[in-house]
Amino acid sequence: MIELYPPKMAQNLSPGWLQYDKRVLCFDGYFRENVEDLSGYQIRSVRISFFLEDGTVQVIEPKKFDSGIPQGCIVKRQKVPAGDLFERKFLSVLDFNVAKPVMIFNREYHITDCDEFTRSFLNQLGIAVPTGSKTPTDPVTELRRRQTTVPVRNPCPKARKLAQFLQNDRKVLRFTAFWDNTEIDFGYVRDLTVLFYLSDNTVEIIENLPCNTGREETTQFLKRMKLPKNFSSITDMAFQSANTVLNVFGGGLSDGRFILDSKAFHDKDVYYTEKDLMIGNALNVFGRNVILTDCDQFTKNFYKEKYGLEGLTPIEKPIDSNLIRSETLREKELPPFNGWGTHLDSEENCKALELKPPRENAKKFLTNENQILRFGAKMISRIKENSERIFTINYYLSDETISVYETPIRNFGFIGGQFLHRRQFFLPNQNLRSSARPRIYTPQHFYIGSRVKLSDHIFEVVSADCHVFDYMEKHQNVFPFSNIQTIMAKIREAIRPHYKTFIAKYIPKLTLHPNGVLTATFEMMKDMLIDLLKETTNTHEIITICRYFQIDNAESNKDKGSVIDWNKFIDYIGLEVDLQQDTN
Fold first, then answer.
1. Which end of the chain is more exposed for a tag (fewer CB within 10 A), N or C?
2. pLDDT at position 556, please?
């Protein structure tokens, strides 16, 4: 432990290992090392750490990339002797300071700077710390830097395949191309995709087969390989090459190993490279003339950054007369429906050899899931008992199916319950044995007053729940009988010729509401609209008008207790201004 305070004060202090726990003085420095090959020396930077808790020292050299020398921990954490070993003296905090050399195991270290904690700690001890300085420049590093900047002239440069692979791995130039093969019988213009791999200068060609070509589904036109430029024909067995062959080892032809001479054989002059691939150029693919027509955005950016080429304009592909002829053929005629399964299932099975179930409209199912339109109906029949039966028609919007349930009545003679199971029902007066898909009932066929024929039973819709009216009024463009604008436009045209007579006829029947407005009942509005529109209106339109102009929100859509705002109804028609203009 270091005695730095008077004895009286030191007695009250904690032990050194506890007071200075995890406190380290850090210094930056260097030492010189002789280099025999360069007849000089090199500067090696170090970081010296002095641990206050036990007075140990550690020297670490920061690692530098590609330095060529072992780096890391030079002196492990230990107490370093100061002076002669027999004196049993070790380095203390007083031996370390900026611009002060320190000897550690017969090696002189020069301290250049320290951190803020070290400077503050030494100042509290009364030790002045000079300003830090920079580490001298290493002459060996400068010499290596100058040597690497000098271009080395190699008469026989080697192809650095590994560097090319690491730099251009997964970088592919993509071109669209075609091969006109219409010169032969049953030939056509082949649609191709040319892929050039920058990592090893290989080419791969994929053919894009159109539908119903009659060809096998082999889309690989050319497997990935180096594509030779000068190809005329397949070489014979006795072909004499002009390339120089070197015998690496071995005495004869059977035991030797031969390679091509790199000085006499040049890869770049034989195979296609990235410089040869331009839009409009023709590639000799083993005797097939492949024309490049366009490229993707990555390829355009590559040529712009590396070669400065901009505005690569694509060229048009020639039109294949055989393809036009196949597209102009009339559509396949489906056979008549034989009664097995459903029409949609039979239609899908006739379009393909592989039997597949018909596709469902998933978007429509998810949008209209749990959406059911419920209507109250009665049966139209000559039998009196059937006419008094009460039914509920459920229309499921998710798959356009319909189910019918009968409301049981006590002592009526009918059990009630499910009357027609859930399925799609076709519109009447259709030929179900034809090839055309028959039309089915849609939500537009159901409204108050409509009649539908389901399995030879005729039902008349007499009521509906509030959800039905809310849904139809929300989708007014699909349900015209719930479109208030269309209905009021029809009323406006019908009332225009005798507007004064119509007002004078029904004003005495109106009542005054406590709010101070004239009101009419549902039955009065129904009689008035039937008298005005005759057969051009229906009950659903009357209910839509009463729901729009009613004052109180009654739960039932035909609640006779609800009243209609007459003033709002007349203002919506908007014919008072026209009457004033006619009077003037």
1. C
2. 38
Q: Is the pLDDT of residue 435 over 90?
A: no
52-56, 328-332, 414-418, 515-519: least confidently modelled range: 328-332
CA–CA gap between residue 528 and residue 508 (Å, rounded): 13
What DSSP designation does 516 have?
S
CB 90 within 8 A of CB 2: no
Kind of pairing between the strands at 563-565 and 372-379 = unpaired
Kindly state the DSSP code that residue 251 receives in the 8-state scheme. Answer: S
The residues with which 113 forms a beta bridge, in sequence order, are 28
Long-range contacts of 297-304 (CB under 8 A, 24+ apart): 298/173, 298/174, 299/173, 299/174, 299/175, 302/171, 302/173
Q: Tell me the residue ranges of DSSP E strands in 92-188.
A: 101-104, 107-114, 172-180
Structure tokens at 157: 């440069």
CA 289 from chain center: how many Å? 38
Nearest alpha carbon to residue 557 among 470, 478, 480: 470
What DSSP state is assigned to residue 380?
-
**What residues contact 101, with CB distance under 8 A and at least 6 apart?**
108, 109, 110, 111
Smallest CA-to-CA distance from 547 within 448, 469, 495 is with 469
Cβ partners under 8 Å of residue 292, min gap 6: 175, 176, 177, 194, 277, 278, 279, 280, 281, 282, 283
Instruction: Name beta bridge partners: 245.
Output: 260
Q: In terms of C-beta density within 10 A (0-12 exposed, 13-18 middle, 19 or more buried), how is residue 98 classed?
A: buried
pTM over 0.85: no
Ramachandran area for residue 157 (φ above 0: left; ψ -120 to 50: alpha; else beta): beta
Q: The tokens of 512 are what?
A: 């005054």
Structure tokens at 390: 């009460």
- Give me 232's structure tokens: 């005329």
Tens of pLDDT, residues 293-322: 999 999 999 999 999 988 888 998 887 666
The residues with which 46 forms a beta bridge, in sequence order, are 29
Phi, psi angles (nearest 5°) of residue 526: -65, -45
| Long-range contact set of residues 344-353: C-beta below 8 Å, sequence gap at least 24 | 344/437, 347/437
Q: Which of 445, 442, 447 is nearest to 464 (CA)?
A: 447
**Pairwise CA distance, residues 562 & 352, whole Å:** 60
374/368 Cα distance (integer angstroms) = 15
Q: Are strands 220-225 and 56-61 parallel, antiparallel or unpaired?
A: unpaired
Q: Provide the 3-class DSSP secondary structure of residue 60.
A: strand
- Secondary structure (DSSP) of 397-447: TTTTEEEEEEPP-TTSS---EEEEEEE--BPSS--TTSSSPPPB--GGG-S
**Mean pLDDT lowest for which of 234-238, 496-500, 553-557?**
553-557
pLDDT, tens digit, 9 for 90 and up, residues 449-487: 999 999 889 999 999 999 999 999 999 899 989 998 888
C-alpha to C-alpha distance for 262 and 141, rounded to whole angstroms: 35
Q: What whole-number distance in Å separates Cα of residue 231 and Cα of residue 367?
A: 61
